[in-house]
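Service request form, structural biology core

Requester: graduate student, group of Dr. S.
Request type: structure prediction, single chain
Budget code: on file
Notes: please return the result as structure tokens.

Sequence provided:
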Amino acid sequence: MEEELNNEDNLAEYTQGFNWGYIIAEHEPELAHELKDGIEHKNDFDNGIYHGINQFLHEKEKSRMDEIDKLLDKGKDKERDI
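Core staff response, request fulfilled:
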């Protein structure tokens, strides 16, 4: 029972850190990079921040790649019409 409570506490700390990391990366990218590079992974909150920042950066990169793919596909369609 005590271990289960501890796991729930750990998950709550991780989730809170993840959310903060994601928000920081979204609104303060320079700070996010500094945090990501300097985080010590001492606890679940730190790990959550690190993973939240990584998640946002991954989604941002994927969005950019999807946009590039769309632009390339439009260019191919124009070439076919010629």
